[in-house]
Design goal:
There is one protein chain. The protein is of the alpha/beta class and 408 residues long. It folds into 3 domains: 109 residues, Rossmann fold (3-Layer(aba) Sandwich); 118 residues, Rossmann fold, CATH 3.40.50.720; 156 residues, P-loop containing nucleotide triphosphate hydrolases (Rossmann fold). 41% of the residues lie in helices and 17% in strands. The chain contains 15 helices and 16 strands. The protein has a 6-stranded mixed sheet with strand order 2-1-3-5-6-4. A 5-stranded parallel sheet has the order 8-7-9-10-11, sandwiched between helices. The chain is globular, with a radius of gyration of 24 Å.
């Protein structure tokens, strides 16, 4: 049995890994030029295909039959070769987004839901939300409901981002601000790279439900595998695969005072997880072309902080790393979003009396107790979790891994 992902130009895809974790069959990436699409679909050696942009509509004329949901959405992302050689077209994105809504815990029935964007992903979100009884409003750049008259929708309970705004590599942007939505209960963002778009970070800051598109990605793959095999696969398979992918994509970010043990913990965690440990200060020195004391001498703290933010802009977009940061990175509020976009942030805290000063310009120059007191609320604002590192480093590493390995 041969299955795969069909597209024109395929970069990195998680589909082969997901399908390998779901079932035992061959799953390949299949790049096909537009002029060769028809021939490939008619005579290609495959049992089933997932279909991605730009072919979700282009494959429809080659299908002998469409499922009701594929007809409704006008798009096919799953093809099954039937015994007579003909193709059945289906769309599993509907199931995937339905699973995403359910995971969020949001009850959308009777509530206004804004869907940002008007493309294929938007059509899927609209169909699911309508099925669940929501009052759906599509926000586009030029339609009757657009980004210029959002004030008429301040009563929205849910916002769904079905646009690419905020997606890697152009992270840190959002299609709108959540400030004008006092009744908002949650945000669903179909993007999963970065894990926390700016929009999702805004939702989390307001203690709202905030879910990215990774659960949808795994759920739709699970349903497509069912169609390939012609048998049910339990929905319980979604969670473990989601967790494995999340750990593979997510950074472990360590913040805390100079000398709190971040670099040592990063090395220990790297040894235990197989992930790469990265030190932000080392990248700062590489970019600046001099050691940190030299940066402070020539450019002062403001110059160093500017270099540090430039380094975090790069490191924050990385995935699957263990990142040890400089103690003062929290003094620049803009660094918070950079670190949190792909990372779970752990505040490593050690008693001030146990913090070393040697080789640390700011620690040598000032009162550590005063510095720690001033930075404490900043660490709290940046962090997802607090790790008390006054005991053994082994215990602290174990605490971090227990949290990181848990599903969240």
């Amino acid at each position: 049995m041969r299955c795969g992902l069909l597209g024109e130009k395929l970069g990195h895809s998680y589909s082969p890994q997901i399908h390998a974790l779901l079932v035992d069959y061959s799953y390949d990436l299949m790049e096909v030029a537009p002029e060769k699409l028809g021939k490939f679909l008619k005579s290609g050696d495959f049992s089933g295909l997932n279909v991605t942009i730009p072919y979700k509509k282009a494959v429809i004329p080659y299908c002998a039959e469409l499922t009701p949901i594929a007809r409704r959405l006008g798009a096919v992302n799953t093809l099954v070769r039937r015994p007579d050689g003909s193709l059945l077209g289906h769309n599993t994105d509907y199931f995937g987004f339905m699973a995403m809504v359910r995971r969020s815990g949001l009850d959308v029935a009777g509530k206004k839901c804004l869907v940002l964007g008007s493309g294929g992903a938007s059509a899927t979100a609209q169909a699911v939300l309508e099925e669940l009884g929501a009052r759906v409003v599509v926000i586009s750049r030029s339609g009757p409901d657009n980004y210029g008259n959002l004030d008429r929708h301040s009563d929205a309970a849910v916002i769904v981002n079905a646009t690419p705004v905020g997606m890697y590599p152009k992270t840190g942007t959002a299609p709108l601000s959540l400030d004008g939505f006092p009744a908002l209960e949650g945000v669903l963002d179909l993007i999963y790279n970065p894990a926390r778009t700016r929009l999702l970070q805004e939702a989390e800051d307001r203690a709202l439900a905030a879910v990215n598109g990774l659960w949808m990605l795994v759920a739709q793959a699970k349903e497509s595998a069912q169609w390939f095999l012609g048998r049910e696969i339990s929905d319980s398979a979604i969670g473990p695969i989601y967790g494995k992918l999340r750990r593979q994509m997510e950074n472990i970010v360590l913040i805390g005072m100079p000398g709190a043990g971040k670099s040592t913990l990063a090395a220990m965690l790297a040894a235990r997880t197989g992930l790469e440990a990265v030190d932000a200060d080392e990248l700062v020195e590489k970019m600046a072309g001099m050691p940190i004391p030299g940066i402070f001498e020539q450019e002062g703290e403001a110059g160093f902080r500017s270099w540090e933010t430039k380094a975090l802009e790069i490191l924050g977009k990385e995935r699957g790393k263990i990142l040890a940061t400089g103690g003062g990175c929290v003094t620049r509020p803009e660094n918070r979003a950079l670190l949190r976009q792909n990372g779970r942030v752990f505040w490593i805290r050690r008693d001030v009396g146990s913090l070393p000063k040697e080789g640390r310009p700011l620690s040598l120059a000032g009162d550590l107790a005063e510095m720690e007191a001033r930075r404490r609320p900043m660490y709290q604002a940046f962090a997802d979790d607090l790790i008390d590192n006054n005991g053994s480093l082994e215990d602290s590493a174990a605490q971090i891994l227990k949290i990181w390995e848990g599903e969240h």
